[in-house]
Amino acid sequence: MERKYKTVSFYTLGCKLNQSETSAIENEFIQNGFKVVPYGEKSDITIVNTCTVTNRASKKSRNIIKQAKRFSPDGKLFAVGCYSQVYWEKLKKIPEIDFILGNKEKFQIFEYLKNSEDKELSKVAVDTIKKDEYFVKEFTSTTERTRAVLKVQTGCNKFCSYCIVPYARGLPVSRNFNDSVNEAKDLVRKGFKEIVLTGIDIGSYSYEDKKLINLIQEIEKIDGIKRIRISSIELNSLSDELILHVAKSKIIAPHFHLSLQAGSDEILKRMRRRYSTAEFFKKVNFIRKNIPNVSLGTDVIVGFPGESEKLFNETYEFIKKVEFNHLHIFRYSKKEGTPAALMPDQINEKVKKERSQRLRNLEKSLKNKYINKFIGKTVSVLCEKHDADNFYGFSEHYVKVKIEPKIEEKLKKSFVNEFLNVYIIGENIDSLVGKIE
User: Fold this and answer.
1) Which residue, 148, 301, 353, 373, is most buried by CB atoms nearer than 10 A?
2) What angle do the packed helices 212-220 and 240-248 form, to 10 degrees?
3) Cβ within 8 Å of residue 67, ≥6 positions away
């Protein structure tokens, strides 16, 4: 390739999987001699990895694309990812974009860059995602200097009535088992002590005769791995066998993010979710019976079509009953091409906002009740950063912890990327405060 292009910048919207994939593409640019500059600075190439999980994400994707061209008017602009995959026809109307690449094509970006001056080459490259077309490249993302995100699965075949993801990501496909383990080993060699396993529907991981539990058991054997965390998982794919394994493991974090979406059986049916509230609660009880003080987070959608005040209250009371300590709250928004977009009884936006706020208030109460359990106890914290006065990290239960060091400990900057036994002395809004034992 001509070295006409020397700098590249990235903007990523959406989920951890998107972040992981951006990191993989970024690594490829670095290996090809490019300098990565912060988004907002002038660059020869700008890559916007888009999201379309909500209308707000779609709108932000379009706005960032237009903004990116203003930052680098003479540079090449690539719009890639989920919004590009599903709504490429809309993006085609935005003149600022040089190339629109889908979720498969974004990993072939250098091929399009080489031919970017070819006037005959279409600016759109979006193909139907077919099974087993992923995982040709590595997919690694990091948070600060301590945690790596390892993508081992993508795609979904649930086809919930509100969700565009199966159309954006295709059907489920799992990464080669040995490749996954080998990359985990490489990450540990590079100094990462915590690995987050991620995917669109990670619980459906299945490569030949290997399931998710087999992959986790193999990664646990890696010398130097200190913590494994499982990202968001569907209730129906979280097996009792995996729960029991987490219960006895010294390495897997006692934390599950179980996607609920609604606590009303009527709304769950409309959403095409494949469980009832009774089944969900039974699974939660099994988890809590075997993993005391387990951290439980969830996703919930408010204002789904047909959600009356009565049905919303069912969701509110169910969340209260389960006692989740962390909520991702989304206001329902129509997604063109999904069954829910055509449903009657769409909910007023003002009502959605009010219900969102009620759940946020509930979350504060539930989180405060949960984190107070740890006062007077010792937790294991992976130290991620520090300022002039304190160190900060997350406990095994995925609770943020501020560590107040002694004067002599303030000089020890190497605490970053170390696991520390921290005695919890108090809490501060949504985090814990402790001292090194």
Assistant:
1) 301
2) 20
3) none
